[in-house]
Amino acid sequence: MSQKAGYSPSFKRPSEIMRMRRKKARSIAGVSPCPSGQDSTDSPGQSSSSPACVRPFSPGPLFNSQNRSGGGTKRRNPFANIENTYSPNKKFIIHNDDGNIEALNTRRDNEEDMSTKTDCQGVFSFSSSLTEAEKRERGEISSKKCLTFSEDDSLFEEEEENAKSPLLKSPQAIAPASIAPPVCTEFPADWSLKTRLLFTSPLTLSWSEQPKAQEEALGLSQHCRAQFIPLPHSLQDPRSCPDLRCAFQQSLVYWQHPSLPWIPLFPRINVERNFKGKSTPWAQDVSLQQSLMSEWSVSLSSLYGLLKARLCPYFYLCSYQFTVLFRAAGLGGSNTITALISPTTRGIREAMKAEGIEFSLPLVEERRRSKGQQNVAEQQGEEQDLKECSELTEGVDYPAGDEGENDADNDEDSSFSWLKEMGIQDKIKKHDNIIIQLRKEGHAVSLDHKPESVVCVEGPHTFTLINFLINCKSLVAAAGSQAGLPPTLLAPVAFRGATVQTLKARSVNVKSQVGSSFQNISSLEITGPILPSSLHTITTLLRPSQKGNFSATLYTHAPTAVMNTHTSTQQCTGGSVDLSGCGLHPASVQQLQQPSSLGKSALTHINMNNYSYTWKN
Question: What is the residue extent of each domain of the chain?
Fold first, then answer.
């Protein structure tokens, strides 16, 4: 038989080497020796103790060597491959460092033990006539710390499970680490206005409906006097607790100007359908419009005076174009009065600049800072590219007059090529001042009506902003369903010209399918302009009444979601500003003093489980 090029007769496949090693392991694994009466003869290619009985297949009966050829040679499994070589019922032999052999107790171990007990002739051996290459390969394999072999497998792998086995680890490592999740007693401050809240709880929420006349009056009186009754940590029967019902009525109160019972004055952006078919006598009466704006100006001035004296924590101005949030000093992580306007247009920003109002675009500045850090590395790469380009273009000859010109001229000529085809290129000026101005202001115009257009005004400039809003003619719609109607003012405390209003609450008991059974779930729906302090107060009351288990879905007025942007340049340390007289619960003040961590998003879900909060935004 002719040998192929590159063929080595001493090369053995790993499967053959592993088979020989398994045979040797079985011969050492405590198989009983043959009786002394039997003799063994040496023959070339066989060991000194040739086996008298061998198994052609395992497991299986023992056959005499006279009935088969090949001695102890085992036939290769023709159906073995990578996918089906492993079987949990097969026998594994582990070779340890100390030379001992450990056999795992499996079903085949029992069968082989029974066969070795009945017949002492079943001894496995392997040929001692090995080449030097085989011995070197065997030496490399045996040098490993721990190997696992499968009886019918042609694959082998290093036994790494000993390092991972729990039997070799300490009891502290075996025991699972029971790390309890952190208990979060508060959710982050959310400065956006909510239009609807939906609370659900396994416990009943019917205690929040149909208050008694005395409870409703007491709740309103406590709100006006800024009195808060402490509640226990847990309530067994919320229906029989009048303090809880009074406190709930107190949390639903807010103040609004103007007040027109037949027209919903919140929200005001993109809600023209709410004003259609409504009676608007001021739309065609100029004197009536002036009277409404005069009263509105007095109310706005009163609110700013309360805000400056820290007697009002915050208030909202909702117009048909934008919403303004004024916050007192000490709230939102700032030690000065701040005002956020969203969304804005280039016309409003230009008008504010003309009045001398200094403002900032916090989201735009934040984007510039993040890009500035990336541009530092990019500039280095661009400088290197420019050097390479200059080296490549050193030997290029340019026509006269073209070397110092920019490509911008060529681009402009190509952009006006269609004018030449029409023959009117002389009648059109290329560098029109209007076109240049529009190109420069294109980026500013692209921000209009987007969350990135939010404007922040701080410090004394907020007073200038109040005067600007009072005198701004574009603040009130000149046409449409909201023509002549002043913006809506919302505040958590009383101010001049305001009307007391209450949020609408409705409780419903429903059944929800959980698996194959139905579970009773109680829901509480609250609608209206829900202020940040009202949201915090309501959740604080549900904590003891629902025994620390409830969830809430929050519906946000979209233009106000960006109000959570942290924009203060003057940081405020906790407790540096006294807000004890602002009319809010101390826990609500403490929450609103922290800088918001929600960015330009708002809370959408709040879940309390075992008195611990989780939320989504």
Answer: 14-31+46-172, 194-211+220-238+504-616, 257-276+284-362+446-499
